[in-house]
Every structure is written in C-alpha cells, then in structure tokens.
Design brief:
The complex is a heterodimer. Chain A is mostly helical. Chain A is built from eight helices and two strands. Chain A has a two-stranded antiparallel ribbon with strand order 1-2. In chain A, helix 1 packs parallel to helix 3 and helix 2 crosses helix 3. By secondary structure, chain B is an all-alpha fold. In chain B, helix 2 packs across helix 3. Chain B is elongated, with a radius of gyration of 22 Å. The mean pLDDT of chain B is 91. Classes of the chains: A mainly alpha, B mainly alpha. Chains A and B meet through helix 1, helix 2, strand 2, helix 5 and helix 8 of A and helix 1, helix 2, helix 4 and helix 5 of B.
Chain lengths: 201, 85
C-alpha cells in the first residue's frame, strides 16, 4: 500500500453509470458501428480493472479510461489496416477526389456545382440536435474509411497533427492531404443533407 | 502570368493551406499565397467559415454524449465489471 494518498482514486463500481454513455458515444463516433463500440467499452472497463495498479491518480478517472479506450481504437484501426500504404492510396485516389470538386483544366478552381454555397442561418442553431448528430455521424462514416481515423483525431480529440502522425505512423504531408479530403467531403455532405436541406428549418 | 494563374485559381491548394493555418502549421510563404488567393476567391472564404462551423460542432459533440448504451448491453457490461472487480 502506498503511503501517499493519490489525488484521484478509482471507483469501478460507478464506472458504467458515470462514464458508460460517454465512452460509448466516443467509440460509436470513432468506429461508426454500435456493436464494435459496445465491445470496446466492455474491453476498456475490463482492462482498466485488471490494470488498475497502473493508475497513478495524476489524471482523472475519466481521462484515464478514455486513454485506454483510445488505444483500443488505434489497435482496432491497425488491425483493419486502414492506414497501410497511405502514399499509394492517396496518389491512386487523388484524380478521383479532385474531379468531384475541382476543375483541373482551370488550375483546380472549384467546380460550379461543388463550390461552397451560403448556408441557411437557422441550421446553425440546431447543431446539437439529435437529427444533426445522426447526419454528422452518417457523413463521417460515408467518407473512405482510410480518412476517418485521422480526421476524427482532429475533429473529436482536437489532437495536434504531430501527435496524430506519430500515433498512426503517417507523414505530415499525408496527414494534410487526408485532413483536407475529409474536410472537403464532410462539408459537402453536411451542406447537402443538413445546411441546405429541409431538415434544418 | 503562369504563376498568377497557379495561385489565384488553385482552390484545392488554398483550402488545404487554410487547414494548415487553422492548426498553426502554415509556413510564411504558404500564408502569403493563401492570403493572396483569398482576396479573389469568395468560395474559399466561405469554405473557411463553414469549416470553422463544422469544427465547432465537432468540439461540442462530446460535451453532451450523443448516444446511450442500450439497457441489455448495459447489464451485460455491469456483470462483466462485477466479475472482474
């Protein structure tokens, strides 16, 4: 038994009620699949209980649990090989991406149909609604799966680019290409399905 | 003229640079290139504003967790926790 009292202690019996929905939401957003998310949450709790001696009490219980879940999600992506051969994948798909949005004969100016439109101002007021979250979720997981982990490390975790490149073992230039493609795609998807649609009244 | 066209028309590059700028990872020359492009380009200025709106929605997402564990799964997980405590 340590003689110093840790700043934070673990209360595993309370975890599910206190952090269950938080961890589950985080996992659903990251992997886009509820069954996988349920398994990841359960694994997180079990790993945390088994590894509780490594908890130093410097961070909060919640931060510690999220860190465990985050590592499990990185492993999940790794097993799916979504970031393998990023160079090859990005160069092979560049022309296809570009032709959807930019006019390469005009030096990559926006195509008329793809250029950002003005959004309905009232759509902004409902950005925390259930409908918006569902559309956002659908738009995230509609993009090529190889873009998702990197995009979400910025979008949800607001992680620094250097940290993401290290965790996922990708080069900075590939990082920016991925972040850019993902943002162009999600902006366009949200524009079509939310900001200009009748859902946002 | 070639350089002019390359900078002024390239929205693909300008939007990528705007994302580097958001994270403070833009170089001095890239910043100049982006600023110059934006003088002429309304759609890219709009892209940047909307991109920030989307980022705000992302940052707010986990403040109120959008999904709840289904009850049956919740009790299975609780059993698993109790077994391991």
């Amino acid at each position: 038994m340590s003689t110093t009292t840790p700043k934070n202690t673990l209360q595993p019996a309370q975890w599910l009620s206190q952090y269950g929905d938080y961890l589950y939401s985080y996992a659903v957003l990251k992997v886009g699949n509820t069954t996988t998310a349920e398994d990841l949450v359960q694994d997180t709790f079990v790993s945390a209980i088994r590894g509780r001696d490594s908890f130093k009490g410097d961070s909060s219980e919640k931060t510690w649990l999220v860190a465990i879940l985050k590592n499990k999600i990185i492993d999940y992506y790794r097993k799916k090989d979504v970031l393998k051969n990023a160079d090859e994948y990005l160069s092979e798909t560049d022309a296809e991406f570009t032709q959807h949005f930019f006019d390469s004969s005009e030096g990559n100016h926006w195509l008329r149909d793809a250029a950002p439109q003005s959004w309905t101002p009232s759509a902004d007021a409902q950005l925390d609604s259930k409908e918006f979250n569902e559309i956002l979720q659908a738009c995230i997981h509609k993009m090529p799966s190889r873009l998702v982990p990197i995009f979400l490390s910025k979008f949800i975790d607001e992680e620094d680019s250097d940290e993401t490149c290290k965790a996922h073992n990708i080069s900075p230039s590939n990082y920016w290409v991925i972040i850019h493609r993902a943002k162009v795609l999600i902006r366009s998807c949200l524009e079509k399905n939310w900001f200009l649609s009748k859902l946002a009244k | 003229m070639y350089l002019f066209k390359k900078v002024v028309f390239n929205c693909k590059r300008a939007t990528l640079l705007s994302l580097k700028k958001d994270q403070g990872k833009i170089t001095f020359l890239e910043r100049a290139e982006l600023s110059y492009h934006l003088i002429y380009c309304d759609p890219c200025r709009r892209f940047i504003t909307q991109s920030h709106q989307i980022d705000n929605a992302g940052a707010a997402l986990m403040l109120k967790p959008p999904f709840s564990l289904p009850e049956n799964i919740r009790s299975l997980i609780q059993q698993e926790i109790d077994k391991n405590i």
